[in-house]
Amino acid sequence: MLRYDGVDLTYSIEGKTAVITGGAAGIGYAAAKFFHDKHANIILADLSPEVCNIAEKLGEHCVGVAGDVCDPAYPGQIIKAGTETFGKIDILVNCAGIVALENAEDISAADWKRTIDINLSASFFMAQAIGKYMIDNQIDGSIVNMASQAGVIALDKHVAYCASKGGIIAMTKVMAKEWGKHGIRVNAVSPTVVLTALGHKAWDGPAGDELKKEMPSERFAEPEEIAACIAFLCSKGAGMITGHNLLIDGGFTIK
Predict the structure, then answer these.
(1) Residue 94 · residue 146 · CB < 8 Å
(2) Residue 11 catalytic?
(3) Which residues are paired to 188 by β-bridges?
(4) 29, 74, 133, 161: which one is catalytic?
């Protein structure tokens, strides 16, 4: 069950151990930095061979585990690293993802498969492995899956991405329903355009200016804003929130 243990108004995650996939860059790195600043332990998981150096530079209580999220052995490696280094794992943040921009009639089978494999299937198998670890060890854990506004509305040239992120939202709800009795909360976050390095590259300029005109916020999100919402969902302040998809979209999807 989702036990009540008071509400910590500081939204502390101090002393918790969090696995963050896609943690070497973008939203994943922003989440790792935010969690580290909130005194959590971090297992930084990423395909980049630099992830161990990035973890070391991030600071104390952070270790990197390089690997491919699509490798069936990778979740086990992460669990081993987390338990051997910090004793247990309390949090999973599934951030690893890609996008293939093609019209529905043009997208290749390879791009469709790769998008679904990385965004949806790998997130599922990572959550499955760590969720089972939490159940077996009676840990009241929190899982946050990275979805997107593209999982809620249709976007041109995003057919595979929309399908993968819609799947993340559905997966999140089922896991929350099944695992609540074990004290595990599972939520998703769905950002709009986020001004990571890739976000700037894709949306700085006229196309981005036009898109912002469609948003009540009239701006895109900063990575730290997404990280803050993820940290809240992992804290005791969100103890009654599970199965939820938190839209962080500046109002874009209300139209």
Answers:
(1) yes
(2) no
(3) 145, 245
(4) 161
